[in-house]
Each structure stands twice: as C-alpha cells, then as structure tokens.
C-alpha cells in the first residue's frame, strides 16, 4: 500500500520580468498548464499564490527576483512523468531556453512525503540544495536517478 506521495520542486530563472514581451508565451500558458496539472490523474496538490492560479507572486527563498518556483505533489512518479512528458507541458520543457537563463546545478528535485503533508518552500529549497550538494539519493533525487517510496532505484 502506498503510504507516501511524491513531491516535486523546480525553479526557473526568467530572462526578464514576468510582464516582459519576451516572457509572454510562458506567462500566457501558466494558468492553462497549471489547470491541466490539476486535472491530471494522480495530481494531489500544487503551490499557489493568493490569486489561486499561479505561484508567481509568492515570496521565494531566493534573492534573485527572476527566479520563479513551482511545487506540486503527486500520488507517484508515473503520474508526474505522464503529466510532465506526455502533455503540452513537455513543449514548455523543450522550449524553456526561450524564456529562461541557465542556473548552475539542478533545477528540479523530487522526494517522498507522508500522505497529507504539504511541503513548504523552505523544505523544498533544502531538498534542492541537498541534491546539488550530494547528488541523487532517496532523500532528494532528480529525473535521472529516481527512487521509489521504499528507497529502491525506480525501474524504468
């Protein structure tokens, strides 16, 4: 029986302010892509600001105001993978260089949480920092070295 859910956190450093014409396509599709996540099988929760639509107005643990965060919780990796790579979301992954600048280190991290737990931004940043410091482990892993909730490497 699954006693845990999968949390994911990722960051992006935009090339310019959110209201810039350079960022228009990214900005215009935030709400529809977020809604698609919420309607996807296995979706549990996602980080939202006070508008209830996006997480663009949330104070992040990063000093750079062009770094935006995204965090969600899924029933398991398979559901997250399907949403990430088998929906329109994949277009934004493939084209992220249009809107974003490179960031040193990992930009995304996953880890398991107890069902019902809502991860905080502090917790998420700590997980990303842990991944960047130690590499992939059951405590904090990337999309290449994926662990199951029992701490074993995921078999693709």
Give me some keywords for this one.
alpha+beta, Alpha-Beta Plaits, five-stranded antiparallel β-sheet, 4 helices, globular
In short:
The protein is an alpha+beta fold.
CATH architecture: 2-Layer Sandwich
Outline? globular
How far is the first residue's CA from the last residue's CA?
A: 20 Å
Number of helices: 4
Q: Give the low-confidence spans.
A: none
Structure description:
It is a single chain. 29% of the residues lie in helices and 21% in strands. With 156 residues, the chain is an alpha+beta fold. The chain has one domain (4-134): 2-Layer Sandwich (Alpha-Beta Plaits), CATH 3.30.70.100. Strands 1, 2, 3, 4 and 5 form a five-stranded antiparallel β-sheet that branches. The chain starts with a strand and ends in a 22-residue tail after the last helix.
Layout of helices and strands:
Layout: E1 4-14, H1 24-39, E2 43-46, E3 67-74, H2 77-86, H3 89-94, E4 100-101, E5 108-114, H4 121-134
Antiparallel strand pairs: 1-3, 1-4, 1-5, 2-3
């Amino acid at each position: 029986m699954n006693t845990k859910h999968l949390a994911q956190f990722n960051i992006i450093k935009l090339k310019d302010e959110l209201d810039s014409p350079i960022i228009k396509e990214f900005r215009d599709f935030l709400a529809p892509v977020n809604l698609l996540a919420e309607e996807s099988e296995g979706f549990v929760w996602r980080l939202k600001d006070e508008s209830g639509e996006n997480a663009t107005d949330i104070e992040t643990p990063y000093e750079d105001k062009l770094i935006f965060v995204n965090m969600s919780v899924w029933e398991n990796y398979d559901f997250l993978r399907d949403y990430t790579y088998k929906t329109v979301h994949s277009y934004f992954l493939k084209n992220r260089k249009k809107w974003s600048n490179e960031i040193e280190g990992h930009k995304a991290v996953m880890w398991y949480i107890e069902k019902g737990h809502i991860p905080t931004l502090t917790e998420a940043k700590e997980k990303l920092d842990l991944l960047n410091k130690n590499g992939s482990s059951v405590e904090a892993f990337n999309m290449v070295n994926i662990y199951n909730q029992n701490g074993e490497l995921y078999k693709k």
